[in-house]
Amino acid sequence: MLMASNPHELLFRPSRAGKNEDNDMRRQDIQLLASARQGDFEARYEVGRRYLLGVEGFPLHSDTGLGYLTHPSLEPSERAARTIADALPLHELVRRNLLPALVKSARAGSTAAQLKLGAWRALTSADPAEPMRWLDAAAAAGDTGARAAVHALRSRPSNAAAAVLGALKAAPGIDLARLVPQALDAAIRSNDAMEIARVLSGTLTANSPVTPELADAVCTALARLENDTEPRLSCENSAVESLLEDCVRRGNTTAELLLGRALSGVDTRGLPASLLTTGQNLRRGAALLLRAADAGLTAAWMVLYRIHADNRSSVSNPQMARLFLEKAALAGELCAQRRLGALILRSANTVHESEQGIHWLHQAARRQDALAAQLLGSLVLPVAGSDAEADAAIDAVRREDPWLACRLRTARDFGLTKLEAMSVDIVAGLRPWGLVVGPNPSIAQAKLAAPRAIPALRPQAFENLRRSVVFFEQSRQDGAPIEGDRRKRTHRLRYCLERSGIDESLFFAKVRSTVLNSLRQGPKWAFHAQQPLRMALAA
User: Fold this and answer.
1) Measured between alpha carbons, how far is residue 419 from residues 193, 406, 431, 462, 519 in Å?
2) Is the pTM of this model over 0.85?
3) In 3-state terms, what secondary structure has residue 436?
4) How far is the C-alpha of 279 from the C-alpha of 295, rounded, in Å?
5) Whose CA is closest to 160, among 195, 129, 189?
6) What is the per-residue pLDDT for 231?
């Protein structure tokens, strides 16, 4: 068909036939078009109808026809709605947001509209009475497809979509290949997990034609169900697997993650692997997961870690497992950050290793991970008294000795012993996640003198530490009086506390040396924190 950039141009081309009748008809068409433009309701309807159908001297141009037929002046017109509903296939009505016209036409008694509306309601409504209402009406008018659909729906009321679609595969105006993806897209946009699962089950059991659009829609729907709902899918896993394979062949990374995880036998809360595949294939699953991870789907790194960390797995590899876990943590996966931190801390034998473990646990705790926060809390010794009492005491000390006040503040925030508080280099010990108490030269026993890494459990604790660091640095630059050695600081501490009547238990943790040493050694710490550690690693 010869098309013009403006469909109206076709109406003004000279007639090649040269007959007077044709020229008269052309003039009538032009006159009709002019009347429509001037606001004549009947002319507007007629022009719209002719453009929509491509009849009576007007070229087929759906957009132009709908522009006339959906004009606000024609909104109450059942005739315009019926013309639209009867002329356009169901998928076009859905795509163009013309379902109100379809409903109006069905109510007005259009058999074609009733059939289309019944099919759409079967796909999208949870109540089987909705499609039954319209299909019954169409069947009563003599439509054989509607009769078959009614019979199927009564036989399978629990799966209206499969029943109706199976009966209407050959019905005019109903293109399942285009319609089913639209229904899935509508369910996905609803963000209702139960609705997505219901529509997905219906479409998959209806044996809808496999198209790239359907495969992509199914993949998106499955991704939405991973963690939002318990499994409610009632379909053959072979059908799901074949659709995901189609997506994989076209480079869909989400499908690579879903299928790779399922082939690896890894379940999510909403999608057990058995719902997506007919069986496991660890090597193919790992290959798909690696492709998904390299493409930017960071969740795949965590799945790769799980299957390689399992010593029962055919792809078991502890070194690769650790690599995948680190990649997941670096990519921002919360579970990976918590797990990596716990694993490092559990085996830490040096303060550097402890720092690494605390770093990752701190990253997870900042994102409100309660298990990571619990593990961090096990590294901080408790201090007696209330914060209000301690704050008042620190304010009193600050007026006489601001350096000492900083040490008391740090001691309470980080659960330091008295010896640690008086010896720690606050400036050198600052870390992005807390404090490192360096080797204590005042203690002869090497194990007890070893450094200790301590996390900040509250943002305020870290802010207090940062302010103390700034104060100490500024004091050194300004040439302010030096604090003196540990002996002098301890002497001033005793003097200030006695003078003010302050109990030192407000600031210093009192524990046995064995307990303190367990916080420096990962295996010993793991023994005392085995319950929260087990929970952190299992989650």
Assistant:
1) 58, 15, 20, 21, 16
2) no
3) strand
4) 25
5) 129
6) 57
